[in-house]
Amino acid sequence: MPARKKTARPLRRLVRWSAFVLLGAVVASVALVLPLRFLAPATSAFMLQDDSGRVPPAYEWRDWPDLGASAAFAVVAAEDQKFGQHAGFDVESIRRAVAAHGNGARLRGASTITQQVAKNLYLWPGRSFLRKGLEAWFTVLLELCLPKRRILEIYLNIAEFAPGVYGVEAASRHFFARPAAALSASEAALLAAVLPNPRRLDAGRPSPYLRERQRWILGQMARLHREGWLTTL
Fold first, then answer.
1. What are the Cα distances from residue 79, in Å, to 51, 86, 91?
2. Over the stretch 141-174, which tens digit does the pLDDT of each residue have?
3. Sheet of 58-59: strands edge to edge?
4. pTM of the predicted protein model
5. Per DSSP, what are the bridge partners of residue 18?
6. Is the dihedral angle over the CA atoms 44, 49, 55, 57 positive or is it negative?
7. Is a pLDDT exceeding 70 seen at residue 105?
8. What does the angle CA 54 – CA 55 – CA 58 come to, to the nearest 5 degrees?
9. Phi and psi at residue 170, in whole multiples of 5°?
10. Terminal-to-terminal C-alpha distance of the chain
11. Which long-range contacts (CB under 8 A, 24 or more apart) does 41-46 make?
12. What angle, rounded to 10 degrees, do the helices at 3-33 and 129-145 form?
């Protein structure tokens, strides 16, 4: 048998198996995302990796009508005001972050709510090219498989608001002893203000920085309300 044919067979076999593995990975990841259209996640990757000492982590799923409008407005105002417009990635924010980093500033995050859902549900804390690549892949799948309102509903339920406290329902009961649906705009804004760093920022003992951020979020919430933002989802 010619040497060329002997070399070609293992190569074809490798290509075939690589295609099978890739197809299997795609099918498996879709199977992780698609059921979320109808089912609430029992937990998240971040909850499973929680090191706060709270066992189990506080987590109480609430469907959209039981979350209240205040929490939705506050989180979008604080984290991703273009949530209803982008397809998972805020390209302009990414460009600004990269440009600022090129001018010597610390590289800041430009993650959308969808990206944060992808990370919190399926991945791990920290930064690496592998994690960012997987985050991008799951972000695309979430946007393709779920409506925007469902993505926001999931985020409101799994975001960490304090060490070991996940979701706006658990956070509302933890800090204000009331359900999420009863949150005032001011309380919702205070909870949203801690989202960049819930391990350092404490809604129970707000610092001057946190109070200033709360005031800014309230202003943004009022603007979103005037623009009828919620009706666009």
1. 24, 13, 15
2. 999 999 999 999 999 999 999 999 999 999 999 9
3. 58-59, 165-166, 160-162
4. 0.90
5. none
6. negative
7. no
8. 70
9. -65, -40
10. 64
11. 41/121, 41/154, 41/157, 41/158, 44/120, 44/121, 44/158, 44/166, 45/120, 45/121, 45/122, 45/123, 45/124, 46/119, 46/120, 46/121, 46/124, 46/125, 46/158, 46/160, 46/166
12. 60
Torsion, CA 148, CA 226, CA 188, CA 65, rounded to 10: -50
The reply to whether omega before 179 is within 30° of 0 (cis) is no
DSSP assignment of 2-48, as one string?
-HHHHHHHHHHHHHHHHHHHHHHHHHHHHHHHGGGGTS--S--HHHH
Q: What token pair was written down for 43?
A: 């937990």
